[in-house]
Design brief:
This protein has two helices and eleven strands, in the order ααβββββββββββ. By secondary structure, the chain is α+β, with helices and mostly antiparallel strands. Strands 4-11-10-6-8 form a five-stranded mixed beta sheet, with no helix packed on it.
Length: 207
């Protein structure tokens, strides 16, 4: 209890003590007993109020809520895997199954086109344009010749290829041929010696 409150209680107790000890025969010169009692009640009320005020002042102040921190989004980028395309080499006639190979060819052009219609027993020319799409050069001397299917050749049954570096195209290689006498669909396949290139033609014979 603070000194102010202690003094207030002392004054109140002192007034009460004086009032009790005053001679009954003496004429009252101050406030009446009722007024003294009222003053005591007021003083006690003020003292209690002062004590409560002091206790409230001593209480821990309420902390103001702090601002909610703003979260900064973190952007997460996926790890990129480098991609290196592999070269594609073509083997087979007219764009066969792609595969990786040091020796490979592409049939750049050919005649007749697939499913060209001819009459039976009709002379026609077969032409191929070839490109070296492998990683190694072709040495001179390899033959381009008939391999399988319906053999419709009548002359020039093979060609000797020159040296061909990667990326080089050569042609046309021209073969004389004649359609069969019977109607139907016919395929004639050629090959380059070494077995890495298979040009072909496919025709339809109708009467």
């Amino acid at each position: 209890m603070s000194r102010i409150i202690f003094r207030s209680f002392s004054i109140v107790i002192g007034l009460a003590f004086l009032a009790a000890c005053a001679p009954s025969i003496a004429q009252p010169t101050g406030p009446s007993a009722e007024e003294v009692e009222a003053q005591i009640s007021t003083s006690v009320a003020l003292t209690v109020s002062a004590y409560q005020t002091e206790q409230a002042a001593m209480a821990t102040p309420t902390l103001s809520p702090t601002d909610t921190p703003t979260l900064t989004p973190t952007l997460i980028f996926p790890t990129l895997t480098p991609f290196s395309p592999s070269p594609t080499h073509y083997m087979g006639g007219g764009g066969g199954t792609p595969t990786l190979a040091p020796y490979a060819c592409s049939v750049v052009n050919k005649t007749p086109a697939d499913n060209t219609v001819f009459k039976p027993n009709k002379d026609f020319d077969v032409k191929f344009w070839l490109m070296n799409v492998g990683t190694k050069k072709w040495e001179a001397g390899a033959d381009l010749l008939f391999d399988s299917g319906a053999n419709m050749l009548t002359a020039n049954t093979r060609y000797e290829l020159p040296q061909m570096n990667p990326g080089k195209m050569v042609g046309p290689f021209i073969f004389d041929a004649k359609t069969p006498k019977k109607a139907g669909t016919y395929t004639m396949t050629f090959k380059v010696q070494g077995g890495f290139c298979y040009p072909y033609i496919k025709i339809i014979v109708k009467k």
